[in-house]
Amino acid sequence: MCGIVGFVGEEQAAPVLLDGLARLEYRGYDSAGLAVLDREKGLQMVKSKGRLKVLSDMVDGGKTLSGTLGVGHTRWATHGEPSDTNAHPHLSNSGRIAVVHNGIIENYMEIKEFLQGQGVTFHSDTDTEVVAQLLDYYYQGDIVEATFKVIHRIEGSYALGILCADAPDQLVAARKDGPLVLGYGDGCNFTASDVTALIKYTKTVSYMEDGELAILTREGIQVYNDLNQPVEKERSTVDWDISDAEKGGYEHFMFKEIMEQPEAYRKAAFPRIRGDRVELEDLNLEDDFIRQLDRLYIVACGSSYHVGVVGKYLLERMLRRPVEVLLASEFRYADPIVDEKSLVVVISQSGETLDTMAALREARQLGARTLAIVNVMGSSIAKEADSVLYTWAGPEIAVATTKAYSTQLAVLTLLGLHFARVMDTMSQREIGEILEQMRLIPAKMEEILSHTEEIQYFASQYFNHESIFFIGRNLDYAMGLEGSLKLKEISYIHSEAYAAGELKHGTISLIEPGTLVVALATYAPLFDKAISNVVEVKSRGATVLGVTTESKREEMAKHSDSLIVIPDTHPMLLPSLAVVPLQLFAYYVALQRGCDIDKPRNLAKSVTVE
Ligand code: F6R
User: Are 498 and 471 contacting, i.e. CB atoms less than 8 angstroms apart?
Assistant: First the structure.
């Protein structure tokens, strides 16, 4: 979704802004723009549809824009098509105020009509332009005062960066339901949609809260709450480096992040495993509360939801209690049956997904306790949940999630084992065995990752299929969902995942000679059943790419045209291994098809609109 960068300092702003925007490219965008304020030249603005490179070339990497204060923006279109005119910044009609915005102004039509009634003309189709024109309307020489008035009048979500030609030394930022981080440099200060944009310049940051407004100058940052009272922000230090957010020799972030999974899994899981026990120090749920839970809810979107689907199978087995896994976009409008005795676990890499955030709020409003499994520190979901378990995966830049998925799964498994101990639904021996096997997962992932050429070869055989099915039972079905999503989102091949037993209730009619079916059969208790389904599709002419474990290699080879084999492990941990070849398969297929792997069309990394 849209990305914002703001800078005020001693050096030329435009190159810094372009560098920051480049680091936000992963969020997804279709146009970009800059506004820079120069004491002599006033407000200068450049914007363009398309890739950031177009914008950068227009200003020779920023060199042709003088001024040491500015804002930059990458836009992911919501209101109005991607175009030069709809790109941000938006300028007020006086030409003295420039605005960049992330979010949606829900009452923009009403404000637009009001301003049009006052004779104001509009130039774009965006909701954002009403902010610029409304600032003009309220402006009486003090841009901060005008901004306060505007944020009290607009409804919806926003992260805003505002420049005013009459205030050549300050940048105003404000947020509600849209991420905005503040960065404290030496003689310079920053704001951005996320830390990635400013980590090259400073590691000292604070996270803006809803309703806050910040004034950034070279000397410092002053923050006010929505009652206009000064706020002392707590500063934190980012514990990763710029190199973590760079490709480091890899062709794509996605591949780099796939390869980082063993280490990410270690970081997420190992500090929480103490002997044969799970220690979740950051979990503030009392044992009595855990024991009285008669049902659990897991709520998320996309791949994080798929982690929830795996979680349902795992946690029901571990806890012998029903686990409901729900899409956040459905949960929030489903009038969910939760109360103060319920626990709602939300899962989100970014911690900013609007539907997940809204589901979390709905759950809290109904009195439920909420627990968030989140990757991005200080993100909105992490701040609002009653309890947070971070996944510590480091920055994930590729739009298609990989290491975040693996670490979410590791943390959810640990949560299940912790609950099982408290609820006394598993023996200490069983828990200990799984923990012991968890310690071996990173090395087993490394083993899979040392044979990428095999999966690359299969991808080269199958990349021109136009429709691919993933089938599996139980945990293998949950894995199929993720494998299928990964493939379709980056390769644009139509793909569906089915519970293998469900095939003959309709879908099997789509199988014809040559249709590629990825058959997941890693879960030993249902291996024979899975094979029956493989036989069914094969006898209708399907080409089968089998995925199984070492111990079932021979049997599976008899029924597969190609075979991917993963190491054996505890059945509950199989998804952590099976996901890796599926990610690689999607990656190599997309590579063969020449797709823009890290920035697939129409997609955004952090979905901050509904
Ligand atoms: C797919 C993918 C998305 C996200 C989804 C939720 O590869 O990345 O499906 O999983 O948009 O995002 P988060 O986890 O940030 O809430």
Answer: yes
Calculate what percentage of the chain has a pLDDT beyond 90: 87
Please name the residue that has the structure tokens 């509360």.
Answer: 289
Is 383 a catalytic site residue? no
Amino acid at 459: A
Three-state SS annotation for 365-384: HCCCEEEEEECCCCCHHHHH
Give the span between the Cα atoms of 268 and 253, in whole angstroms.
Answer: 20
Could you confirm whether 301 is annotated as catalytic?
Answer: no
> Ligand 1 in contact with 350 (CB < 6 A)?
yes
**Residue keyed to tokens 């044992």:** 287
3-state secondary structure 12-47: CHHHHHHHHHHHHHHHCCCEEEEEEEECCCEEEEEE
The Å distance, Cα 408 to ligand 1 centre, comes to 12
The ligand 1 atom at the shortest distance from the C-alpha of residue 408 is: 14
The strand pairing partners of 164, in sequence order, are: 97
Question: Six-digit token pair at 301?
Answer: 């979107």
CA of 1 to the centre of ligand 1 (A): 12
Cβ-contact 477, 449 below 8 angstroms: no
What's 357's DSSP letter? H
Is the alpha carbon torsion for 246, 250, 252, 254 positive or negative? Answer: negative
Is 402 touching ligand 1 by the criterion CB < 6 Å? Answer: no
Query: Is 607's C-beta closer than 6 angstroms to any atom of ligand 1?
Result: yes
pLDDT-based confidence at residue 463 (cuts at 50, 70, 90): very high
Rounded Cα gap, residues 572 and 583, in angstroms: 19
Dihedral, 161, 163, 168, 174 alpha carbons, nearest 10: -40
Q: Hey, what are 14's tokens? A: 């435009």
Element (DSSP H or E) covering residue 469: strand 467-472
Residues in Cβ contact with 506 at an 8 Å cutoff, skipping those fewer than 6 apart: none
CB 109, CB 90: distance < 8 Å: no
CA distance 451 to 383: 40
**pLDDT per residue over 10-54, tens digit each?**
999 999 999 999 999 888 788 999 999 998 999 999 999 998 999
pLDDT of residue 2: 87
Provide the β-strand partners of residue 519: 471, 546
Angle at 542 between CA 538 and CA 548, to 5 degrees: 70
302 CB less than 6 Å from ligand 1?
yes
Mutate to test the pocket of ligand 1, among 252, 325, 332, 350 (most ligand atoms within 8 A of CB): 350
Would you say 157 and 177 are in contact if contact means Cβ atoms under 8 Å apart?
Answer: yes
For the stretch 471-529, pLDDT in tens is 999 999 999 999 999 999 999 999 999 999 998 898 888 999 999 999 999 999 999 99
Instruction: Tell me if the bond preceding 600 is cis, omega within 30° of 0.
Output: no
Strands 273-274 and 323-327: unpaired
543/554 Cα distance (integer angstroms): 18
Q: How far apart are CA 214 and CA 374, in angstroms?
A: 26
How many whole angstroms separate alpha carbon 274 and alpha carbon 317?
A: 22
Measured from the CB, is residue 28 less than 6 Å from ligand 1? no
CA distances from 134 to 103, 406, 605 (A): 17, 45, 30
Q: Is 303 in the pocket of ligand 1 (CB under 6 A)?
A: yes
Our measurement of the distance from residue 507's CA atom to the centroid of its chain's CA atoms, rounded to an integer in Å, reads: 31
